[in-house]
């Protein structure tokens, strides 16, 4: 099925828009590599950017279910597989660019993956995404039956492996990796809240998730600097308590969570959506008064 068709085979503007949005980052990051004929510096930059986009898109995949529960926008389910496949495509671009940086030498690539722990972790995540992509079709769902759902829960440990890989290769500046870790924590908290029976249509629940995920993000950043570097971790905590630009990862995670609170009234049956619908209906059917006598 083409990525711009809905399950009934009809053209979908929504699916086309998502498809184009998924293509844009890849086009932007690959263009310098193509333009420079595979020069070393553009390839190295593209390796980093493609890895970052892999994790971002993977997290967007995990966002689909809680966002659907918050907004009740059922069409989101139609693009979940599309986004997941895009994450796999980006990780394959990431791996291919790494292979190019190693002169496409299979022995060297294999030895590097075996000897460098962050590459080993990343490769396991690549294999995991490949398995999930290969079994994401309707035919695979029918063949696997109940096992399909259990298999695709591997997306959670795969996301963890991706974030750990990001941390290990980032070395000193782990701001982006910390942000991704915090976002993952928030996405897991939405699932925990739903599992506990707490409504994701509640502003209180969403606000608590925002605060807790932001606080955990501070803890993650503190732990990394305390355990893996010589940078005083107390300074990291102090920095997170200040409002500065660019924002620390914890603030971004918190604000992302509060954004969910803001869009809640605009979801299906939300207060603001109902208000605007009633307003438009009132204007449409308002009686016209004739002028003159």
Could you walk me through the main structural features you see in this protein, from its secondary elements to its overall organization?
The protein contains 13 helices and no strands. It has helices at 13-35, 40-71, 77-101, 106-115, 117-134, 138-144, 146-152, 155-170, 175-195, 203-228, 233-240, 249-263, 271-284. The model has no long low-confidence stretch (mean pLDDT 88). The protein is mostly helical and 293 residues long. Helices cover 76% and strands 0% of the residues. It folds into two domains: 1-169, no CATH class; 171-258, no CATH class.
Topology of helices and strands:
Blueprint (H helix, E strand, L loop, with lengths): L12 H23 L4 H32 L5 H25 L4 H10 L1 H18 L3 H7 L1 H7 L2 H16 L4 H21 L7 H26 L4 H8 L8 H15 L7 H14 L9
Helix pairs in contact: 1-2, 1-3, 2-3, 2-8, 2-9, 3-5, 4-5, 5-8, 6-7, 8-9, 9-10, 9-12, 10-11, 10-12
The whole-number mean of residue pLDDT values reads 88
Main pleated-sheet profile: none
Could you estimate the helical fraction of the residues in percent?
over 70%
Number of strands: 0
| Poorly predicted segments | none
| Cα gyration radius (Å) | 23 Å
Terminal residue distance: 63 Å
Described by the principal axes of the CA atoms, the overall outline is globular
